[in-house]
């Protein structure tokens, strides 16, 4: 089994469209515990990705991931730009070193997660996007090859995002609020969940 | 002019970045190169990696460049901008852990005396020490 270019293109398109559609929700979450710009920032970044969709999908997968990453870095305008950008840049870099999609997905995803962790100097448990990415990486590792892997990732991402609500933020802007950050889902965790759900939906549509 | 460390000011607000740069120029004069940027790629509050890259290149000095930032995203985007520089410039740029206004003034004052990048950074970062 190998990932087909047209599948990849529709996956990127659906993911970008879902992030753009979720912008109002992300902004509302970010107004509660951040500075209220996560939705508009992500929307700007993924609109730029959509604008380059034809060029991106004409590239080999590793280069395509790097182009997505660089586009997010250059256009998002908040910390989520370098964070998501680093994820895609590192994933593209991993893919260019003898890795294959979808066989080495867990390893490629792990490179992205490591890059986010380094860029944000953060770990899971600090009420950030890593609280979705790290559990999903675990699922990718433990459930690889299962026929219901996509469904498991969808469930894990949703549960993990919801689980950020009772956490107190210790990284990012929300940490300024201290205990008042408790009770709200983290916007970055939510946007990671939106992206992962879009990828799941896109893959299931083709199964 | 090119033998003093350059200073870059990165704020979420272009007004704050410009105002800080104005203060630095008034207090230190024009012997230190000062560049600033603020605002996201659409001009709203935020920071922009390409604008930070441009500011670093504008303030470029063979002695290096010290960047002063305000809040989280400004730091993350500045670190990203540094990584996107030409490899030979990357190691000559530091992001200071210092308050933006006081840090910029202290860093520029130190730079004006011909100090090294490490000294400039240390003086700015003393402001954040307990």
Summary, kept brief:
Chain A has 207 residues and is an all-alpha fold. Chain A contains ten helices and no strands.
Describe the structure in your own words:
The complex is a heterodimer of chains A (207) and B (130). Chain A is mostly helical. Chain A has one domain: Serine Threonine Protein Phosphatase 5, Tetratricopeptide repeat (Alpha Horseshoe), CATH 1.25.40.340. Chain A contains ten helices and no strands. Chain A has helices spanning 5-21, 23-33, 38-51, 53-57, 61-75, 80-95, 105-120, 130-142, 149-162, 187-204. Chain B has a single domain, classed as Rossmann fold (3-Layer(aba) Sandwich), CATH 3.40.50. Chain B is built from six helices and four strands. Chain B has helices spanning 14-28, 49-58, 72-83, 87-90, 100-112, 117-126; strands at residues 6-11, 34-38, 65-69, 93-96. Chain B has a four-stranded parallel sheet, with helices on both faces. The mean pLDDT of chain B is 94. Chain A binds chain B through residues 35, 37, 40-41, 44, 73-83, 85-86, 119-120, 172-173, and chain B through 40-42, 44-50, 71-73, 76-77, 79-80, 84.
Helices and strands, with pairings:
The complex is a heterodimer of chains A (207) and B (130).
Chain A: H1 5-21, H2 23-33, H3 38-51, H4 53-57, H5 61-75, H6 80-95, H7 105-120, H8 130-142, H9 149-162, H10 187-204
Helix pairs in contact in A: 1-3, 1-10, 2-3, 2-10, 3-5, 5-6, 6-7, 7-8, 8-9, 8-10, 9-10
Chain B: E1 6-11, H1 14-28, E2 34-38, H2 49-58, E3 65-69, H3 72-83, H4 87-90, E4 93-96, H5 100-112, H6 117-126
Parallel strand pairs in B: 1-2, 1-3, 3-4
Helix pairs in contact in B: 1-5, 2-3, 5-6
Tell me the major beta sheet of chain B. 4 strands, parallel
**CATH architecture verdict of chain B:** 3-Layer(aba) Sandwich
Largest interface: A-B, 22 and 18 residues
Write down the domain tally of chain A.
1
- Indicate the proportion of strand residues of chain B: 15-25%
Radius of gyration of chain B: 13 Å
Q: How many domains, in number, for the residues of chain B?
A: 1
